[in-house]
Amino acid sequence: MTPPLPTTTTTYTSIPLPTSDVISRSIHNLTSTISRHRPWSELVFSGDYSLPRRFSSLLLRLKTNYHYFFVNYAIIVAACTGLALITASPVALVVVGTIIALWLLFHFFREDPLILWSFQVGDRTVVVSLVLASLWAVWFTSSAVNLAVGVGIGLLLCIIHSVFRNSDERFLEEEDAVTGGLIGSNRR
After folding, report:
1. Does the pLDDT value for residue 15 go beyond 60?
2. What per-residue string of b and e applies to 91-117 under the rule 16 or more CB within 10 Å gives b?
3. Which residue from 78, 98, 108, 77 is spatially nearest to 141, judged by alpha carbons?
4. For residue 180, what are the contacts with CB-CB under 8 A and spacing of at least 6?
5. Which stretches are annotated as coiled coil (predicted)?
6. Spatial CB neighbours of 109, under 8 Å, sequence gap ≥ 6
7. In the prediction, which pLDDT does 169 show?
8. Mean per-residue pLDDT, 48-77
9. Longest dimension (CA), the chain
10. pTM of the predicted structure, to 2 decimals
């Protein structure tokens, strides 16, 4: 009679999912984030535009408008970058767009571990691979200047908008107030 084998218990913090499930959940997270953008008419036409009177009000406007229009600003920067890349070369736009999509899918919007060929890929390996792919894409397409110009113009437009748009009359939504620390919890 053979002695029983010792049993080991393994505790998993998350269930490894196949790569296709990780990609579909990442796409879902991306689309849900983009769907939270504010209406474009509210960004452009509503509100009062004026110069801030004090430096502290300028900083408050920057912070308030940044939090309120964050997704819109990200779309504006992405559009300016895309326009700058397409003027350089359509190939550059496709290559850099693919790299950005990989970053979004495999780093920013991924919730579950990445499994490739039955192996779990660590977060550090994913980031290093994405950085190397990004460097290769910028070198291959010679688009570093165009990327910098596009991002710079997009950021400049967003900063100008957030400085001149008066945010004094805007009411905070409950979620924004909680995340901004303006509303505390009554728990003791």
Report:
1. no
2. ebbebbbebeebbbbbbebbeebbeee
3. 98
4. 67, 172
5. none
6. 25, 26, 27, 29, 30, 33
7. 58
8. 85
9. 89
10. 0.63
